[in-house]
C-alpha cells in the first residue's frame, strides 16, 4: 500500500520514525508517490522530531509527508520551517454524496437517495465517517442501503416526524406536539440528536425563505410540498426565537439524566412564542373601526377621558411655572436606569480593548468598503451566517464584527473554518491578516461604553497624580471660568471622535 497512516499519539518514539525513514527510500508500487500521513504529529517526542528532521531536509523525490495536527503551535520551529501549511477543510455534503454514489455504483449495491443524503449530512464533513456509516447501513440492509437503516445507524429523526412536529408548533397545538415528542423518545431516539435535527430543519426553512436555491444547491434536506407550505406559514423572527431556545436546551441536555423533561419544556415554550408585532394589520383595524359608529356609552367615556387629559395638562403646566419661579429647587433623583444585560462571558474583551485602543474611523471605513468583496469570497453557508453581521470598529491590526442575533454570534464564534476563510480572503484582498473578533450587536454599546469609561478613569487617575505632585491653590476658581468648549479638547472626547466620528458625537458637561 502506497498510503501509510501512522498515529503519532501511540507511535511517538524515535524507533518508529527511523523505521519510516528507512522505508521511505523504496519506490511506490502502484501510485506515483508514496504518502505518509502522520496524525496528531504534535504528540511526537523531541527525539522523534529530530529523527524526522533529516528526512524532511532531503526528502526522496517520490515521497510526500502529510503532518496532520490540530495544535500547530506545539510543532518545533525547525519542522515548520521545512514544511508548507495547508488548512484541511470539511468536505462538502455534495462531494460526499457523489463519492458514495460512485462507490455503490461500482459495487452494484442498491441505495435510496434519501438515505445517502442523510448519511452525507450526518458525516459533518468527514469522508471516513460517511463511509463508516455507509458500511454499517449496508450490513443492516442485506447489501442494500435503505432510508430506514440509515436512520437506525445515525439515530436521526425522520423528515416526516420533524415536519409533523413543526406543523404542530406553528399551529400552537401543544398537546399534539407533546405526543409527537413522546413518540420520538419511545422509538429510542437520542434527545441531543433530535435537537440537532430540529435545529438543522429550522436552518433549512430559514435559508429557503431567503433564497430557495440555497437549500437546493446545498442538497441538505428533502424539499416537499409540506416543507414549502410550512416555510410560508412561519416567520423568520419565529425561527430565530426557536433556534435560540434550541441552543439553550442543547447546552442543558449535557448535564441532565432526564432529557424528556427538557424536551417537554421546550415544546411548551416554542408553542407559546409570542407572535411578532406587525404594523401591516394596523390599517385594517382602523378601517374596520371607521366602518362602525361608536355607541353612546363609548362617546361619554371618550369625553370623560378627554376632560381628564386636559386637567392633567393644566396641572403639569402649573407645576412647570412653579418650578421656574423657584430660585433653589431640590435635586430631583433620576429614576434608576434599567441595568444593561450582563456581558456574555465568552466575549473576548482582552482582544477587543487593544483594537479599540488603536481604532480609527478611517480604518473602519476601509473595512466597510471591502466588506462586500469579502462576503462574495465566502461559501454559501458562510455567507448565510455573515449576512447578519457588519464591522463596527477597526484598527491597523484588528477588526470587530457585530452580529445582529446572539445565536448566530455563538455559531460564528465556534466555527474555526469561518474565521480561517475570513483571514485567508482578507490576506488575498488587502495583503494582511488583521485579528478578527466577533461580538453580539445587543452588547456592543455596553462594551463600547465600558471601554470609554475605563479610558476616562485612567486619564483622571493620571491627572490626579500630576495635581498631587504640583498643587495649584487657584485651580477651583480657574475651573469656574473655563469655557465649556474645552471639553472638545479632552483626550477621551478625541478618542471617541476617532472611534465613532464627530458627526454622531454629543458632548455633555457634567
UniProtKB/TrEMBL annotation:
Protein name, entry field: DNA polymerase III subunit gamma/tau
Listed EC numbers: 2.7.7.7
DNA polymerase III subunit gamma/tau helical lid domain sequence ranges: 96-142
Top EC class for this record: transferase
Composition skew (Basic and acidic residues), residue ranges: 469-485
Keywords: ATP-binding, Metal-binding, Nucleotide-binding, Nucleotidyltransferase, Transferase, Zinc
Keyword Lipid biosynthesis among record annotations: no
UniProt-annotated stretches for the region Disordered: 277-297, 460-493
Family per record: Belongs to the DnaX/STICHEL family.
Pfam families the UniProt entry points to: DNA_pol3_delta2 (PF13177), DNAX_ATPase_lid (PF22608)
Gene Ontology terms: biological process: DNA-templated DNA replication
PANTHER family membership: PROTEIN STICHEL-LIKE 2, REPLICATION FACTOR C / DNA POLYMERASE III GAMMA-TAU SUBUNIT
GO annotations of cellular component type: DNA polymerase III complex
GO MF entries: ATP binding; DNA binding; DNA-directed DNA polymerase activity; metal ion binding
Amino acid at each position: 500500500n502506497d498510503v501509510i497512516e501512522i498515529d503519532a499519539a501511540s507511535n511517538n518514539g524515535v524507533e518508529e520514525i527511523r523505521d519510516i525513514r528507512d522505508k521511505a527510500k523504496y519506490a511506490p508500487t502502484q501510485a506515483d508517490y508514496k504518502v505518509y500521513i502522520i496524525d496528531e504529529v504534535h504528540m511526537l517526542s523531541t527525539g522523534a522530531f529530530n529523527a524526522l528532521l533529516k528526512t524532511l531536509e532531503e526528502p526522496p523525490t517520490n515521497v510526500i509527508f502529510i503532518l496532520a495536527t490540530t495544535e500547530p503551535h506545539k510543532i518545533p520551529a525547525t519542522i515548520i520551517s521545512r514544511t508548507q501549511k495547508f488548512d484541511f477543510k470539511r468536505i462538502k455534503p455534495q462531494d460526499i454524496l457523489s463519492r458514495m454514489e460512485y462507490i455503490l455504483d461500482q459495487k452494484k449495491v442498491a441505495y435510496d437517495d434519501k438515505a445517502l443524503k442523510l448519511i452525507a449530512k450526518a458525516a459533518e464533513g468527514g469522508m471516513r465517517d460517511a463511509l463508516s456509516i455507509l458500511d454499517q447501513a449496508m450490513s443492516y440492509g442485506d447489501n442494500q442501503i435503505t432510508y430506514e437503516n440509515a436512520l437506525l445507524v445515525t439515530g436521526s429523526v425522520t423528515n416526516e416526524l420533524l415536519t409533523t412536529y413543526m406543523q404542530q408548533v406553528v399551529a400552537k397545538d401543544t398537546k399534539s406536539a407533546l405526543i409527537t415528542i413522546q413518540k420520538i423518545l419511545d422509538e429510542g431516539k437520542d434527545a441531543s440528536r433530535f435537537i440537532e435535527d430540529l435545529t438543522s430543519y429550522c436552518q433549512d426553512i430559514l435559508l429557503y425563505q431567503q433564497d430557495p436555491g440555497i437549500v437546493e444547491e446545498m442538497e441538505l434536506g428533502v424539499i416537499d410540498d409540506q416543507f414549502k407550505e410550512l416555510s410560508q406559514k412561519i416567520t423568520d423572527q419565529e425561527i430565530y426565537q426557536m433556534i435560540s431556545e434550541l441552543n439553550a436546551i442543547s447546552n442543558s441536555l449535557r448535564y441532565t439524566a432526564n432529557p424528556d423533561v427538557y424536551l417537554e419544556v421546550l415544546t411548551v415554550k416554542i408553542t407559546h412564542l409570542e407572535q411578532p408585532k406587525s404594523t401591516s394589520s394596523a390599517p385594517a383595524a382602523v378601517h374596520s373601526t371607521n366602518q362602525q359608529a361608536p355607541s353612546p356609552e363609548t362617546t361619554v367615556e371618550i369625553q370623560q377621558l378627554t376632560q381628564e387629559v386636559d386637567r392633567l395638562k393644566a396641572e403639569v403646566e402649573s407645576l412647570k411655572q412653579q418650578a421656574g419661579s423657584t430660585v433653589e429647587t431640590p435635586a430631583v433623583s433620576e429614576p434608576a436606569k434599567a441595568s444593561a444585560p450582563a456581558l456574555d462571558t465568552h466575549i473576548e474583551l482582552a482582544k477587543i480593548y487593544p483594537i479599540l485602543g488603536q481604532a480609527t474611523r478611517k480604518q473602519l471605513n476601509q473595512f466597510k468598503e471591502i466588506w462586500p468583496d469579502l462576503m462574495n469570497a465566502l461559501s454559501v453557508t458562510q455567507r448565510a451566517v455573515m449576512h447578519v453581521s457588519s464591522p463596527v470598529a477597526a484598527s491597523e491590526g484588528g477588526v470587530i464584527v457585530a452580529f445582529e442575533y446572539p445565536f448566530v454570534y455563538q455559531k460564528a464564534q465556534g466555527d474555526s473554518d469561518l474565521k480561517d476563510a475570513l483571514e485567508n480572503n482578507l490576506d488575498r484582498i488587502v495583503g494582511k491578516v488583521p485579528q478578527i473578533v466577533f461580538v453580539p450587536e445587543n452588547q456592543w454599546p455596553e462594551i463600547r461604553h465600558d471601554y470609554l469609561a475605563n479610558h476616562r478613569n485612567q486619564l483622571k487617575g493620571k491627572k490626579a497624580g500630576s495635581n498631587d505632585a504640583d498643587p495649584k491653590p487657584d485651580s477651583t476658581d480657574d475651573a469656574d471660568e473655563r469655557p465649556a468648549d474645552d471639553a472638545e479638547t479632552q483626550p477621551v472626547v478625541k478618542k471617541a471622535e476617532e472611534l465613532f466620528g464627530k458627526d454622531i458625537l454629543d458632548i455633555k458637561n457634567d
